[in-house]
Amino acid sequence: MASEIIFGQNLFITAIDTTGQPGDSIRIVYDSAGIPIDTIRKDSTQSKPLFDDLIDYNADDSVRFSIQEKKVYLYGNGFVKYLTTELRADYIELDMDKKLAMATGVPDSVGKLKGTPKFKDGGQEFESTELHYNFDTKKGYVTEIITQEGEGYIQGKTTKKMSDSVYCVKHGTNTTILTLG
């Protein structure tokens, strides 16, 4: 059995299940063009997206997803771009739930690290051997940082990025000559 109900200028047609089963009725509402209208209310407890924008990523070797852990693993010249932040490294691990990135190089055949993290955010750029970065707070922890500031270079064993302009460097040097190792 179907009925037509007219409200204002829209035509609503409802269809009712007439199988006679108690509590087994379906009400389908159509708009004036005869297209069903979704009458299911949205869940107000629906969680908001994990990130505010799309994350662009790729890797030369492989990309692995762990749905259960909510993590993405990039192997071989991995690249991640989120808003103004870019990260490159031979190994990158993204924890989507905690909005964290961990990046490091991988040892070559003689044990020397290659593909170490290169981080860029706006006008800031640096290289390191290992990086931990929170996309939400924009804070991070870096080991063996090398960055250029004006005419000089800043190097440090361990560095914490507290804000865009505040870094805490332990065992650091500021020099005009770049020294590696």
Defining key terms:
elongated; four-stranded antiparallel sheet; 0% helix; eleven-stranded antiparallel sheet; mainly beta; disordered N terminus; 181 residues
Can you walk through the features of this model?
With 181 residues, this protein is an all-beta fold. Helix content is 0%, strand content 55%. It is built from no helices and 17 strands. The protein has strands at residues 2-7, 10-15, 28-30, 36-37, 55-58, 62-66, 71-82, 85-95, 100-104, 106-107, 113-114, 118-121, 124-127, 130-134, 140-149, 152-161, 167-175. The strands form three sheets. Strands 5, 6, 7, 8, 9, 12, 13, 14, 15, 16 and 17 form an eleven-stranded antiparallel beta sheet that branches. A four-stranded antiparallel beta sheet has the order 1-2-3-4, with no helix packed on it. A two-stranded antiparallel sheet has the order 10-11. It is elongated. The N and C termini lie far apart (82 Å).
